What we know:
Elements: H1 4-60, H2 64-149
Amino acid sequence: MHKRSTRLTRIARHHEHLQTQESRKLSDLRDAVDQAEQQLASLEQYLSQYRDELEQLKRSGATVSRLQHYLQFIARINDAVREQRQRVALTRNSFESQRELWLHARTRTRSLEQAAERAGQQERVQLERSEQRSVDDMVAAWHVHRGNES
C-alpha cells in the first residue's frame, strides 16, 4: 500500500494540472475580453467620426440624399456598437465565470498540497519514533544480554 502522502501528492499534481488548464482558459478569455473591448472602442471612434462628418455635411449644404445615406450608415454603426457592447458583456461574464472556476481549482490544489505535506510530516515523525523504538529495543536487549552474561 502506498503512503498517504504519496497518494495525496499524486492527487495534488493531478489537480495542479487541472488548475493549469483552467488558468489557460482564463488567459484566453482575458484576451477575448481585451479584443472585444478594443473592437468596441474602434466602433465607437468610427461612429464619432461619422457623426462629426455628418455635422460638417449639414453645414456645407449637402444634398438630402447624401445626408440620408450618412444617417443610414450611422444607424448601422450604432447597431454594430450595440451588438459589440453585448459581446463585451457576455465575454466579461464568461471571464468572471472562468475566474471562479480557476479560483476553486487553485484553492483545491493548495489544500491538497498542504494535506500531502502534513501527511508527509506525520509519516516522518512516525518513522523517527519507530526507529527510536527499534534503537531502544536493541539497547534493552543488549542490556538484558549483558546482564545474563554476568
